[in-house]
Write the structure tokens for this entry.
Amino acid sequence: MTPSGQPRSPQRWRQTLGGAVAAAVVWLLASDALAAGGKPATKLVNVADTRALEPGFTRWVADIYNTSHWLFALLVVVVMCGMGLALGLLCDRLVGLLGINLGKMSHHE
Amino acid sequence: MDFLNVYLPIAGLHFNVLLLLLIGFTVGVCGGFFGIGGAWIVTPALNIFGFPMPYAIGTDLAHMGGKSIVSTIRHGKFGNVDLRLGFSMILGTTVGMELGAQLVMVLERAGLAESVIRKAYIAFLALIGSYVLYDYISFTRQQRRQGPTAVAPRRETLAARLQRVRIPPMIHFRASGITCSLWLPVLVGLVTGVVASVLGVGGGFIRMPALIYLVGCPTAVAVGTDLFEVMITGAYGAATYAVKGRVDLIAAMWMLLGAAIGAQLGTVAVKYVRGYFIRLLFAMTIFVACASVILKQLALQLASSITILTAGIGISTVIIALLVRGVARERAALRAGQGGAER
């Protein structure tokens, strides 16, 4: 029904249907075209070259780097914190061998 | 010397292990002594020897987190880490760094980022260095007038005035020996966070003097507490750069090995040096950093990097010399005490 209460003519129905199909086609094609383009090529992927590396720790780190940067980030934080803690405690012991007082210090300005 | 070269697959280059250990050691000594991360030494040093800049920054941040743990453990045992103060400041620092990043975006949109930030950095370093140097000179003058028993200047400091602002909640920071409103360290953290973020630096250069002159911490506590913050910001920075694939873990591990030894020595050296002497060396370090930024602006990149590297090695040599002298004196005093007790 039209706003004035008159029934729509068959031509009017065809025009409305044709417009809707055209809009759907444009929408589908546009989204397909965008999907085919992928993300904008703003950044190159970083890859560690492992071809010359023998199996070992360095190779393992490089493989993790190439697999997932998130996993690599976790590895960086864990290794750095673990090494910092271990080396901190070890160096603490070694400095203790100097035979100096390593207790609380008084603050001299 | 080929056997000392290691292949760094992530940065994609061969690098000398001794060089990595030396850079780590130098920055470790300075970091443990001044309570700073030391990006101003590491980043140009790695860059000058072939590291691409983003990898130099990421690798520096990664080793910084680990190195600061070493220093924080030792400073904690000396009673120089005020955890309550550190946590209060982190809150403000985090918000401040985000605000600073937004400010940089605004400056970028206005096309002013490069020129404003560059000039602000130079002005800021010169200002901090001059103030710390002025403070040292006025203290030594007073000491000369009063004799060797002089204590810190009795004039009312800005920190003392800020501590008197009683906005609840009031908190006592035991390690620092001060009582002030919680809002003081939060605000100082916020301001230093904004400045650090705008200038694109870690913040140790700014936080350490801010803890002394705005919060009122003793110098050694300012150094220890700042390192606690550097530890957290370093770990966070390492994670964000690693997610972007800009950290060479193998290089960071070698550097951390050297930095751990250097950080331990730099931290123990604090025990043998008076607070004001730390401030004097800090002022000199800041002037060198300022000179290097000026050289960089004059397009003298190589001269800038060499200045920084030479200064870093020079300053860490002075710190090690102070440590050796202090240890020798303490051991001699201990032996004399034992000898006296035996007699």
In short: The radius of gyration of chain A is 34 Å.
